[in-house]
Specification:
Layout: H1 2-54, H2 71-76, H3 80-111, H4 118-126, H5 133-143, H6 150-157, H7 172-181, H8 185-196, H9 200-208, H10 213-241, H11 245-250, H12 264-274, H13 278-306
Length: 312
């Protein structure tokens, strides 16, 4: 009995000594993580909850406002410019996202070839991504100028009269899509990483079977690249619905001509920071959040049908 008592007594003495270091390490962990946690609460959680509340009020920077329920949301659906901005944004997303995937994959496959000076070519195609959006907009405004722009100058040299790219309702959005495709260097890098992850054994087995380049691309490269395409599809769609800097800089915030370049985030920005209708702008932000979430959920739900992973 004495031994049992002694053994039990020893256990009761050991347990507190084990708990103290655990509690201390846990406290140290929370202390190290506290800057991130505080930042998350201050700069993400609090603004998120505040914007949800403000969307139900007439709050502005100069006035505390009053609670109006869903009045801001109902007014949105009667705002003609709201629908115009949505249609412009959808038009941009429908054309830009597929084209960015098409050109991005094609360019990545070319840059994946084993040729001399490949690193230089990859650097050249990635450099436009480093150019700030404002500088890029100014550059393209000069290139597409109808009077002295380089693009119309080249067309005139072959007897073609170039259009007023940024001053025409028919050409303003295609011009913006062209400008945005200039910055697909970052997705190309991701595609290159995906191509490098595909095992050479698949291609060697296909060559033994006498497969052509087109057959290898169709049955090996593209299917095994679908996880990367899926990622860039989601990110490209989110970025397309948040288009702001290029059209705002080109039109100086006016969305001209005839609001053909007024995008959703531009309209939201004007209401919140130009007209100080913070409640109305917050409601627009939540509508945008719902739209992006629905589209992202649709893409995720359909991904099982066309996204293929190695080893499956």
């Amino acid at each position: 009995m004495a031994q049992v008592t002694t053994s039990t007594h020893k256990k009761t003495l050991i347990q507190p000594t084990l708990r103290k270091p655990l509690r201390k390490s846990s406290l140290n962990g929370w202390l190290f993580a506290s800057p991130w946690i505080i930042g998350l609460l201050l700069f993400y959680a609090y603004p998120l909850i505040s914007s949800m509340y403000y969307s139900l009020t007439t709050y502005s920077i100069l006035d505390a406002g009053e609670f109006v329920g869903f009045k801001n949301y109902t007014e949105l659906f009667h705002d003609e410019l709201f629908w115009k901005s949505i249609s412009n944004t959808i038009y941009f997303a429908v054309f830009f996202v597929p084209l960015s995937i098409l050109f991005g994959v094609s360019l990545a496959m070319m840059l994946n070839m084993k040729v001399k000076g490949l690193a230089i070519y990859r650097t050249i195609f990635f450099l436009p991504t480093l150019v700030p959006q404002v500088a890029l907009a100014v550059l393209w405004m000069w290139l597409l100028n109808p009077g002295f722009g380089l693009v119309n100058g080249m067309l005139d040299s072959v007897g073609i009269q170039g259009p007023n790219w940024l001053g025409s309702m028919n050409w303003s959005k295609p011009s913006l899509i062209l400008m945005s495709l200039w910055t697909i260097g970052q997705p190309v890098i991701i595609y290159l990483a995906g191509l490098g992850d595909i095992s050479e054994e698949y291609y060697e087995a296909a060559e033994v079977d006498g497969a052509s380049w087109f057959q290898k691309t169709r049955h090996i490269t593209l299917p095994l690249l679908t996880p990367v395409i899926f990622y860039n599809l989601v990110m490209g769609l989110i970025g397309a619905f948040q288009q702001f800097t290029l059209p705002y800089t080109m039109t100086q915030g006016q969305g001209t001509p005839a609001n053909s370049l007024t995008f959703y985030v531009m309209h939201m920005y004007d209401n919140a920071f130009k007209y100080f209708k913070m409640g109305y702008g917050s409601a627009m932000a939540w509508i945008l959040f719902v739209i992006i979430m629905i589209l992202t959920a649709i893409i995720f739900s359909t991904s099982k049908r066309w996204v293929h992973y190695q080893g499956e």
